[in-house]
Amino acid sequence: MTGQVVFRDPPGGRKAVAVWSIGVAVYFVAVIFRTSLGVAGLEAADRFHVGASALSAFSLLQLLVYAGMQIPVGLLVDRLGTKKVLTLGAVLFTAGQIGFALSPSYGMALAARALLGCGDAMTFISVLRLGTRWFPARRGPLMAQLAGLVGMAGNLVSTLVLAPVLHGVGWIPAFAGSAVAGLIVLVPLVLFLRDHPEGYEPPPAPPGGGGFVRRQIRDSWREPGTRLGLWVHFTTQFPAMVFLLLWGMPFLVEDQGLARTTAAGLLTLVVASHMGFGLVYGQLIGRRQAARIPLALGTVALTAVLWASVLACSGAHAPMWLLVTLCVVLGTCGPASMIGFDFARPANPAERQGTASGITNMGGFLASMTTLLAMGLLLDATGDNYRIAFSSVFAVELLGLTQILRLRPQALQVERTRLQAAPARHPSDSPSPAPA
């Protein structure tokens, strides 16, 4: 086990909010680009003449690149700092969005989505790092939830703005035009973003090379809090992600018989619910750390119940009130996934926060990739039977739940022991969070 996690808190304040807002704006645009395919799935199938499995490959490849980049990005953030990594990410995801707009073939479009996923992967870990560098530790859960909330606002833009623009002006103008947002956020990022407040420089990074990489990953992974954080993220995030990222619109239109406008409204409801519950979860966890596990497990259970209720309407369309309830509950998945970072954060020292966050952030995207692939294969194998395909969600949730229950006692015991052994803190430091 590593040593104590004790460091002097940054002050926060207006300047912290301004700098953090620049980073969050970059993440906001990245989410717009990431989720743009979710409102264009049917158009993409027509444009590139592909079926369900090939269509799911767009999101699968994008998420594969995203998940695979999380540990390297965490290491880069720990080594190079937030500004350099975030700038590179903005350049890459903007180039990917432009490439996707102009791609004349399925293969080139796949490559463009992979490039977009690479840039997107560099944003959220960087924003989390900004939060820990600019705000007191007691604000950590709230800042993380706020970052997730802003990201969901990007999803809202995809649904409310990009979807009608796509139907109105066509594929190339809609996607190429949206890429301008990436160029806009680059300007304040390059000119004004700073990695940390003056006087709160992090400890010097140890010598680089393979030894540094192995040590960062090994020490982060040894912490039970990091592993528990990964599995909480894995189990809670993916149901909403697969619904919003690709399969929600086809399911609501083709299986449930809804008009596109009605289906878009339900996708918007998921996003709005996420934004509302994000504030609630952040406040609850910031005030009472013991709420972490109950909130995570309660979210998983409620999601499973509503998902099963919709699928149980065999041979008939689910009633609208049930679909609305499902979408509201799916909105809790994103805020619940942020709880994973609230286990990884106190388990690791400041110089390892990027690596630990990267490991944690892999969880939900690995689960989403697995489920997206399973749904696409099952849809093709069953002749577009959405009820069978969507049942794959339960198997992934069960895997995650077993790991959470296995790791929870050890992670919380280590956290209690560390807090009891911690020396008195500097008066300007925030109090340590109470153990769950």
- The shape is globular
Rg over C-alpha atoms, rounded to the nearest angstrom = 21 Å
Distance between the termini: 19 Å
Helix content: over 70%
Report strand %. Answer: under 5%
Highlighted features:
436 residues; mainly alpha; Growth Hormone, Chain: A; 19 helices; 0% strand; globular; disordered N terminus; disordered C terminus
In short:
The protein is an all-alpha fold and 436 residues long.
Structure description:
The chain is mainly alpha-helical and about 425 residues long. The chain has one domain (about 15-195, about 205-420): Up-down Bundle (Growth Hormone, Chain: A), CATH 1.20.1250.20. It is built from 19 helices and no strands. It has helices at about 15-35, 40-50, 50-80, 80-100, 105-120, 125-135, 140-170, 170-180, 180-190, 210-220, 225-255, 260-285, 290-310, 320-330, 335, 340-345, 355-380, 385-390, 390-420. Helix 1 packs parallel to helix 4, helix 4 (about 80-100) packs antiparallel against helix 5 and helix 7 runs antiparallel to helix 8 (about 170-180). About 55% of the residues are buried.
